[in-house]
Design a protein that fits this description.
Mean pLDDT: 96
Catalytic activity: oxaloacetate + GTP = phosphoenolpyruvate + GDP + CO2
Distance between the termini: 59 Å
Strand content: 15-25%
EC number: 4.1.1.32
Binding site for Mn(2+): 225, 245, 296
Helix content: 25-40%
Bound molecules: sulfoacetic acid, manganese (II) ion
CATH architecture of the largest domain: Alpha-Beta Complex
Low-confidence stretches: 1-8
Domain Phosphoenolpyruvate carboxykinase C-terminal P-loop: 241-595
Number of helices: 17
Subunit structure: Monomer.
Length: 602
């Protein structure tokens, strides 16, 4: 938007907080946006309880929120999004860099002027009769040097309520922004919620996001994927850090020693479950504990000792509801008993939230669209229905999650949903191999994005929808961390989703995944045995603790074996994939692919 062509004399009622900021650049931008979008009122969010109560009352009155059973779920609400607005829209998500090749083949691209023109035409007058909310937020602990701030302008009070849970939002964030003078600008409007008038555009060179036409999750809560991944990954490249689609957890052994692990899985592949893992009984009795730092995003950078230190830039969880039960994720279920926003779930006769796999003996009467539940018409809860809840409500939330210095990472894990080929776990031989393992990641698609579900695609480091620049440059950036003095984590690959000939999962997953994490930590400490294969090191027989679970011969062979011929074909496909990026693909990664392809052919 060019300020000189805008009518800055536009005025709207100003409410909330300080009604402005001490930072001229912020006031000017808000004025420009108001002149373009022409809201009836401008509300500066301070993040206070009073503000939240007033906003909630407004949303209850206009039907944006429905109150849930106060006795069973105090302070909790249901929101139903437009039925055409239930997931991220990758085909409508753009990265607008001056040079097309900087966005890379992994992103939809538009020239910045064209992108701004397209978006500003949509935003023109779109907030008439609505309140425009100005949300200052901080991604990461408010006093952490690793944190970064932004301001989201939106006409959706639902977005305000979610941002209040998912980020450190309001007065303290505004104070930091005023001190630092820089912030990511995110402009959002639900527009008409028309899929044909919907775009999510990123201008990484200007630290700017413009999102129009969707009120759902990652499309609208701009601190999350838009800022903390797409814009931040671009910033991280130039500043020497990493912005990743990873959960972070701490594993405390019976000796009281805690190792932190960061793990990348595509959306809806169990990051929240792994982050909140409850150890199997034998482990619990022995004194093992798992601590949750984050379930979706990880920012990490080398510390003075050469190790990578990580923070979770988020303050809450936007988790997938279906499948969440006492058995699958008791910590998540405990977290969402109060003060939670549910989006697109079903409801029971006594007004409790309900979803497939909740397994609490109740039945839904209303589906996610608000219609009487009829199993013939599909599930009660949308497969991508979500809960939004403060991380502080999670019983396993780690006090270290608020540490401004972050936690030192001992292991990085990559994993996808692979019904065949990929064993339960293997270890990369060094950092370069680890980067290749991440780059070659494949996974079957899920309901987190619109489009077909269950189709295998390459999703490097689970960042396919989220890397704000050319993947070839991103892999070079990853490789660049291997330098003198670095004490890099070990890199592993896991696959919880391997299926047997009968189509059933072979590995029990959930709490039993701790067995795999234990083997990794032992490897980090040089205490567990492995078998070297061309694809990496697999657990030696007996090295991974299987006490208390039974696996038949097929399961053991598939989970801990390696099929040379099938891997040879996989490596040919990985080679072709890397070549899609042309000459920008780092030679070191291609050499690594060739090295392993050679070993497989021997
Ligand atoms: O909609 S979100 O992007 O926030 C959730 C996800 O897909 O991981
Ligand atoms: Mn995610």
């Amino acid at each position: 938007m060019n300020a000189s062509t805008q009518d800055l004399s536009f005025s709207a009622t100003v409410e909330g907080g300080a009604g402005g900021s001490r930072l001229p650049a912020l006031n000017d931008w808000v004025a420009q946006v108001a002149a373009l979008t022409r809201p009836a009122a401008i509300h500066w969010c301070d993040g206070s309880d009073a503000e939240n109560e007033a906003l909630t009352a407004r949303m209850l009155a206009d039907g944006t929120l429905h109150k849930l059973n106060e006795e069973t779920h105090p302070g909790s609400y249901l929101h139903r999004s437009h039925p055409d607005d239930v997931a991220r829209v990758e085909h409508l998500t753009f990265v607008c860099t001056t040079h097309h090749e900087d966005a890379g083949p992994n992103n939809n691209w538009m020239a910045p002027e064209e992108g701004h023109a397209e978006m500003d035409a949509l935003f023109d007058g779109c907030m008439q009769g609505r309140t425009m909310y100005v949300i200052p937020y901080c991604m990461g602990p408010i006093d952490s040097p690793l944190s970064r701030c932004g301001v989201e302008i939106t006409d959706s009070p639902y977005v305000v309520a979610n941002m209040r849970i998912m980020t450190r939002m309001g007065a303290p964030a505004l104070a930091r922004i005023e001190r630092e003078g820089t912030f990511v600008k995110g402009l959002h409007s639900i527009g008409e919620l028309d899929p044909n008038r919907r775009f999510i555009m990123h201008f990484p060179e200007e630290l700017t996001i413009k999102s129009y036409g969707s009120g759902y999750g990652g499309n609208a809560l701009l601190g999350k994927k838009c800022h903390a991944l797409r814009i931040a990954s671009h910033q991280a490249k130039s500043e020497g850090w990493l912005a990743e689609h990873m959960l972070i957890l701490g594993i405390e052994n019976p000796q009281g020693e805690t190792h932190y692990v960061a793990a990348a899985f595509p959306s809806a592949c169990g990051k929240t479950n792994l982050a909140m893992l409850i150890p199997p009984e034998g482990y619990r009795n022995a004194g093992w504990k798992v601590w949750t730092i984050g379930d979706d995003i990880c920012w990490m950078r080398p510390g003075a000792d050469g190790r990578l230190y990580a923070i979770n830039p988020e303050a809450g969880f936007f988790g997938v509801a279906p499948g969440t039960s006492r058995n699958s994720n008791a910590n998540a279920l405990a977290s969402i008993q109060s003060s939670t926003i549910f989006t697109n779930v079903g409801v029971t006769a006594d007004n409790q939230p309900w979803w497939e796999g909740l397994e609490n003996g109740q039945t839904p009467v209303i589906d996610w669209r608000g219609n009487p539940y009829d199993p013939a018409k599909g599930p009660a809860a949308h497969p991508n229905s979500r809960f939004t809840v403060s991380a502080k409500q999670c019983p396993s939330y780690s006090p270290m999650a608020e540490d401004p210095q972050g936690v030192p990472i001992s292991a990085i894990v990559f994993g996808g949903r692979r019904a065949s080929l990929v064993p339960l776990v293997f270890e990369a031989r060094d950092w370069t191999h680890g980067v290749l393992v991440g780059a070659a990641m494949g996974s079957e698609t899920t309901a987190a994005a619109t489009g077909a579900v269950g189709v295998m695609r390459r999703d490097p480091m689970a960042m396919k929808p989220f890397c704000g620049y050319n993947f070839a440059d991103y892999f070079s950036h990853w490789l660049s961390f291997d330098k003198e003095g670095a004490q890099l984590p070990k890199v592993f690959h896991v696959n919880w989703f391997r299926k047997g000939d009968n189509g059933k999962f072979l590995w029990p997953g959930f709490g039993d995944n701790l067995r795999v994490l234990e083997w990794m930590i032992q490897r980090v400490k040089g205490e567990a045995d492995a078998v070297e294969t061309p694809i990496g090191a697999l657990p030696a027989e007996g090295a991974l603790n299987l006490d208390g679970i039974t696996l038949d011969e097929e399961a053991k062979a598939k989970l801990f074996g390696f099929d040379r011929a099938a891997w040879e074909a996989e490596f040919a496909s990985i080679g072709e994939y890397l070549d899609e990026y042309g000459p920008r693909m780092p030679q070191a990664l291609k050499d690594e692919q060739q090295r392993i392809a050679g070993l497989l052919a021997d």
